[in-house]
Amino acid sequence: MVEKNLEIIEAINKFKKEKNAIILAHYYQDADIQDIADFVGDSLALAQWAAKTDAEIIVLCGVHFMGETAKILSPEKRVFVPDLNAGCSLADSCPADQFKEFVEKYPDHKVISYVNTTAAVKTLTDIVVTSTNARQIVESFPPETKIIFAPDKNLGNYINSVTGRNMLLWEGACHVHEQFSLEKIIELKKQYPEALVLAHPECKSVVLKIADHIGSTASLLKFATQSDKKQFIVATESGILHEMQKNNPEKQFIPAPPNDSTCACNECNFMKLNTLNKLYNCLKYETPEITVSKEVIEKAVKPIQRMLEISEKLGL
Ligand code: 13P
Ligand code: SF4
Fold first, then answer.
1. In this structure, which ligand is nearest to the CA of 152?
2. Which of 44, 174, 200, 219 to mutate to test the pocket of ligand 1 (most atoms within 8 A of CB)?
3. Mean per-residue pLDDT for 172-187?
């Protein structure tokens, strides 16, 4: 198995060179995919990389909306996701036709959408945000601006609470982050009384209330690295623990468990559909490819570009 993996890794690196391809991976990918990627990052960083790379092929090891975002930002490139079934329950919780009806009811509202949406939803959006920049982008609007925020109600509630805004929220959620259990985290705190709780803002408000730090995956990683504490309970998808542990071998990272299972950690079944084997096949056969129509790209690129411009100004 080890030898087999080494052969696959060698072949992937060879294809990458021959085909001028770049591998971008999200922190929620399996460790072996993160280790072979040219760049590992959060949703914002992956979009920034997709916009600036001069590789001819982008293999986005993440989920479908991330591949779409890369294609929208670099339409002249070929973009692949190793398993096209890697969807997202949060993006699915906001179907474009229903969202269009909703938006049309509030014509005086600006529309802010989380990047975890389909390209079709992005065409109905004024500006896209990620968990790294959502707060600053909301605050860049005058306080009296009426705003629709979609699709994550937990992130929206959190941004409302820290900014004092009253954005109208779409009732969507991520099945992974909704699963974290306050009770189980409190139990873990008894076992590890010194541990700080790190939580992604897609978690429910009861979990966020007891968190010592709330932020995107990149922000949780940075906080853990800069902190002088030694133990952390991590309430986001457990893939991030790989990079946390790699950067901080002397610290202990304890995954927060989901509510209704005996598993010790919480995994996104969509993210985990990508495997080293599928990545190999993807590069070898140049499939499955992400396609987005020209009309959709023309509309969806604007709110994503706006986000990238503001993020650059903010130094994010
Ligand atoms: P970030 O990458 O912005 O931390 O978001 C996490 C997530 O849920 C990606 O699907
Ligand atoms: Fe979507 Fe949640 Fe998986 Fe992220 S963790 S890709 S938001 S289902």
1. 2
2. 200
3. 94
